[in-house]
Specification:
Layout (H helix, E strand, L loop, with lengths): L1 E9 L2 H16 L5 E7 L3 E4 L15 E3 L6 E4 L3 E7 L9 H17 L6 E3 L2 E12 L5 E14 L2 E9 L19 E2 L11 H15 L5
Parallel strand pairs: 1-2, 3-4, 9-11
Antiparallel strand pairs: 2-6, 3-5, 6-10, 7-8, 8-9, 9-10
Helix pairs in contact: 2-3
């Protein structure tokens, strides 16, 4: 059973991380159900385990060491953060499959709004093509709409996904998001879609079961 929780307001990062750690420990000990938390953070940057310090261009917001995989990421109002605490002992002990399921979950969720999300080799996250602009290779530009960063402890997952609904995209200018310099960042509203957080949450819940089909 997965317990879904919506955290109201702007969840402070350090306190939320501590609560997530406690929930993961409880799941590991068999004292709590799997959990998915839906929340927003105040403006901040997080640094993953592969962070290049040179990718912090302007520390205009607090910087937190996250402990998850990946590099620098921005969180802030208008961005849905999804912390997924799932027991991979019950879902197949396969980290690659789990990350693929997270990607598929995002792609299926975006499809609910007619957006084609895609993954790209060597580029973490979920991307959308912007045919109105040329990219660095002369092909249509691609912008990131969702970031993924996970940690696994004793086969229980935590951290997870962030999907841009309507954040201030200029806030990403303080970092090189995920270490990728040649591509931009977008959001559902930036794509011209009047999607609300409630709309996105409904789509996330609708697509969850089919996206997590289970790993062998």
């Amino acid at each position: 059973m997965v317990e879904w929780t919506h955290l109201p307001g702007l969840a402070p990062y350090a306190e939320t991380l501590a609560a997530m750690e406690a929930r993961v420990a409880a799941i590991t000990a068999g004292r709590a159900d799997e959990a998915i938390w839906l929340l927003e953070h105040p403006p901040l940057y997080t640094a993953g385990t592969s962070t290049n310090p040179a990718d912090l261009l302007d520390a205009r917001f607090p910087v937190h060491v996250a402990g998850r995989g990946g590099q620098y990421t921005y969180h802030g109002p208008g961005q849905r953060v999804i912390y997924a605490m799932l027991d991979l002992n019950q879902r197949g002990r396969d980290v690659r499959c789990y990350v693929r399921d997270l990607e598929n979950w995002v792609i299926a969720t975006l499809a609910e709004f007619g957006v084609k999300g895609e993954i790209r080799p060597g580029r973490v996250g979920v991307w959308v093509t912007r045919p109105e602009r040329a990219g660095p290779d002369g092909k249509p530009a691609e912008d990131k709409i969702a970031a993924i960063g996970v940690k696994i402890r004793r086969w229980v997952s935590f951290h997870g996904i962030s999907i841009n609904v309507e954040p201030d995209l200029s806030h990403f200018n303080g970092i090189v998001p995920c270490g990728i310099r040649d591509h931009g960042v977008t959001s559902l509203v930036d794509l011209g879609l009047p999607v609300t957080m409630d709309d996105l949450d409904t789509a996330l819940k609708t697509t969850f079961v089919r996206a997590f089909s289970g790993c062998p």
